């Protein structure tokens, strides 16, 4: 492998991340399941977001290493929101000498608020050259194997009935794609960026908080604690976003079924979580028929 590549520092379902140039930068290299077009799309979208002044890592160049497409980025010294939430839950359920429960809650909610602020900033941009959100969602639903043809048609009909906007959206604002650095949030992994409705991004975030199946390694006490705070996280997140951008929870709730249906085509969530989403989609479709 290229001599400029250093220690492996992270990985995901689509890529591996290594130190680059004496650790001053990182390189994200595609796995076999991610083609060159997808990586170029991520590079172009991230470059666009950087040039718009948004809180994203600076992308330096698109490269190929031993036949693998990759992107060289600024190295961000911070933690993902996922890591911070898990650490918070583990700390909350262990000894907390000298730290109050209220202090923990405020720390957690600070992360939630700055996430809402970051998304509001991203959504303030428009008229950019990225794919159509609505068409992307419809295409993803078409590949889903967990719903009947009739159910997929009903979800797409619901999607088509929703108001249409033309704002920049990230497309995958999960807790692993949100970095916290020195009290500020940054967004990574721009492969799925689109132009459309902020409500879709907000629904994606809410779905993850509400329905995500927690890692098996977490102690039962930590799982129980996270389950008790899921809805309070959503309340704080939407309260902050509504103050900034005026979009209400009720407007976002209408997008839950289409975005949950889209998530059924993703590789990054397991069967248990997909079954939870299928049940929620069917419940919502049934409610619409009443």
Rg computed from alpha carbons, rounded to a whole number of angstroms: 19 Å
Low-confidence stretches: 96-105
CATH superfamily of the largest domain: Aminoglycoside phosphotransferase (APH), C-terminal lobe
The whole-number mean of residue pLDDT values reads 92
Structural class: alpha+beta
Query: Order of strands side by side in the largest beta sheet?
Result: 1-2-3-5-4
Cα distance spanning the termini: 60 Å
Strands, count: 10
CATH fold descriptor of the largest domain: Aminoglycoside 3'-phosphotransferase, Chain: A, domain 2
Q: In the residues, how many domains can be counted? A: 2
SSE pattern, N- to C-terminal: EEEHEEEHHHHEEEEHHHHH
Beta-strand fraction estimate: 15-25%
Helical coverage, percent range: 40-55%
By DSSP (H or I, 4+ residues per run), the number of helices equals 10
List the main descriptive attributes of the protein structure presented here.
290 residues, alpha+beta, Phosphorylase Kinase, domain 1, 10 helices, 50% helix, 17% strand, globular
Short description, anyone?
This protein has 2 domains: 5-74, Phosphorylase Kinase, domain 1; 79-289, Aminoglycoside phosphotransferase (APH), C-terminal lobe (Aminoglycoside 3'-phosphotransferase, Chain: A, domain 2, Alpha-Beta Complex). 50% of the residues lie in helices and 17% in strands.
Detailed description of the structure:
By secondary structure, this protein is of the alpha+beta class. The chain has 2 domains: 5-74, Phosphorylase Kinase, domain 1, CATH 3.30.200; 79-289, Alpha-Beta Complex (Aminoglycoside 3'-phosphotransferase, Chain: A, domain 2), CATH 3.90.1200.10. It is 50% helix and 17% strand. The chain contains 10 helices and 10 strands. It has helices at 36-51, 81-92, 101-123, 133-142, 149-161, 198-211, 220-245, 249-253, 256-263, 271-289, and strands at 5-11, 15-20, 25-30, 59-65, 68-74, 79-80, 167-169, 178-181, 184-187, 194-196. Strands 1-2-3-5-4 form a 5-stranded antiparallel beta sheet, with helices on one face. A 3-stranded antiparallel beta sheet has the order 6-8-9. The protein has a two-stranded antiparallel sheet with strand order 7-10. A hairpin with a 3-residue loop joins strand 1 and strand 2. Helix 4 packs antiparallel against helix 5 (149-161) and helix 9 packs antiparallel against helix 10 (271-289).
């Amino acid at each position: 492998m290229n001599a400029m590549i250093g220690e492996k520092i992270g990985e995901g379902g689509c890529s591996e991340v290594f130190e680059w140039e004496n650790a001053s930068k990182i390189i994200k290299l595609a796995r076999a399941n991610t083609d060159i077009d997808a990586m170029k799309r991520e590079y172009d979208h991230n470059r666009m977001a950087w040039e718009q002044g948004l809180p994203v890592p600076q992308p330096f160049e698109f490269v190929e290493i031993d036949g693998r497409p990759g992107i060289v980025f600024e190295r961000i010294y911070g933690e993902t929101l996922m890591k911070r939430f898990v650490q918070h839950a583990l700390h909350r359920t262990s000894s907390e000498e000298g730290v109050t429960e209220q202090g923990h809650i405020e720390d957690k909610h600070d992360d939630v608020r700055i996430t809402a602020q970051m998304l509001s900033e991203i959504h303030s941009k428009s008229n950019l050259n990225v794919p159509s959100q609505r068409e992307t969602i419809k295409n993803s639903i078409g590949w889903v194997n967990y719903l009947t043809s009739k159910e997929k048609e009903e979800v797409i009909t619901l999607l088509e009935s929703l108001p249409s906007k033309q704002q920049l959206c990230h497309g995958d604002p999960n807790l692993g794609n949100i970095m916290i650095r020195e009290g500020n949030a940054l967004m990574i992994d721009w492969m799925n960026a689109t132009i459309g409705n902020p409500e879709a991004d907000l629904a994606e975030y809410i779905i993850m908080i509400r329905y995500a199946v927690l890692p098996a390694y977490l102690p039962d006490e930590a799982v129980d604690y996270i389950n008790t705070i899921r809805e309070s996280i959503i309340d704080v997140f939407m309260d902050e976003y509504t103050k900034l951008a005026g979009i209400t929870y009720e407007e976002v709730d209408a997008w839950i079924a289409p975005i949950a249906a889209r998530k059924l085509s993703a590789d990054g969530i397991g069967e248990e979580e997909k079954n939870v989403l299928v049940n929620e989609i069917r419940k919502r479709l049934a409610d619409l028929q009443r």
